Recover the amino acids of this structure.
């Protein structure tokens, strides 16, 4: 018995490849959509340049008016008294770096642990949601309220103005940035790395310390540098906690000292030309410090994106 194979019926004619009209793809400003896209691109470029004008103008003004007093003596001498010539901002630089260091230590320790807690330990829990909400709420905290808080809790309690009080005030402003960037950086680590660590028998603590944190470190450092840059430029909290001093810090954290922000605030109101010139030079130094921290944060952010394979 011979088997007959039924031919498969053709349901319809084979689809012929459609020819592409290259003229339709031609980039011509005569076409309404192309012209509209071109106009929006030009408008965005103009608006971007307009947005950069204030920053560039401020930097140029600081370089012109503050650069002429920028020398070694300015960076190493004490602020001049009223009517004196010369002088510098040496103690203000030391005080600024010290306050940023104190605030950074407090905010980094708490912020990194809180970010890891939100990203790995309690992602969807009620307590995690409360911590996340408080961190986001702190991002809009007026800086003067941070100074008032540190004044009532530290200055009144210790009976003196100090870098410790100033550091606590600045840590309140740095903390939310570090918490949120740490959470996002840890969450961005691939799930396969977590699964591989657990598959090899690592505990959750070992996975966090040896896998997640080293991988997310560039992103965490980005948030830390941006937080330090914000704290470096604050003035209002230091008026309530640090005040000012014309002398060098004697070696402990419980005495008033100078800072660049407060020095600029005081000397900009002075009737003496020498102090006004020093205020301009101090402004330039402070902007350079903030700019260096910001550029460092952006460089680490770019490196983190390359490591994670994300687009720029």
């Amino acid at each position: 018995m011979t088997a007959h194979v039924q031919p498969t019926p053709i349901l319809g004619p084979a689809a012929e490849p459609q020819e592409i009209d290259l003229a339709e793809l031609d980039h011509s400003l005569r076409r309404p959509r192309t012209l509209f896209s071109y106009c929006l691109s030009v408008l965005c470029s103009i608006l971007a340049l307009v947005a950069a004008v204030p920053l560039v103008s401020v930097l140029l003004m600081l370089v012109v008016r503050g650069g002429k007093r920028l020398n070694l003596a300015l960076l190493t001498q004490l602020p001049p008294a009223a009517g004196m010539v010369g002088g510098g901002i040496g103690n203000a630089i030391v005080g600024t770096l010290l306050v940023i260091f104190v605030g950074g230590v407090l905010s980094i320790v708490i912020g990194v642990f809180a970010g890891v807690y939100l990203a790995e330990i309690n992602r969807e829990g009620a307590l995690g949601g409360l911590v996340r909400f408080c961190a986001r709420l702190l991002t809009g905290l007026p800086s003067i309220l941070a100074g008032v808080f540190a004044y009532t809790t530290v200055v009144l309690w210790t009976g003196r103005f100090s870098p410790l009080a100033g550091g606590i005030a600045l840590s309140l402003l740095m903390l939310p940035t570090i918490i949120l960037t740490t959470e996002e950086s840890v969450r961005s680590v691939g799930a396969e790395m977590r699964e591989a660590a657990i598959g090899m028998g690592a505990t959750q603590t070992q996975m966090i310390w040896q896998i997640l944190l080293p991988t997310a470190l560039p992103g965490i450092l980005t948030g830390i540098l941006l937080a330090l840059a914000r704290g470096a430029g604050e003035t209002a909290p230091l008026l309530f906690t640090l005040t000012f001093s014309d002398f060098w810090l004697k070696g402990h954290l419980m005495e008033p000292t100078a800072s660049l922000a407060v020095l600029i605030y005081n000397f900009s109101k002075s009737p003496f030309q020498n102090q006004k010139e020093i205020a301009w030079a101090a402004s330039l130094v402070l902007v350079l410090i903030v700019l260096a921290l910001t550029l460092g944060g952006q460089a680490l952010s770019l490196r983190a994106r390359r490591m994670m394979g994300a687009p720029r």
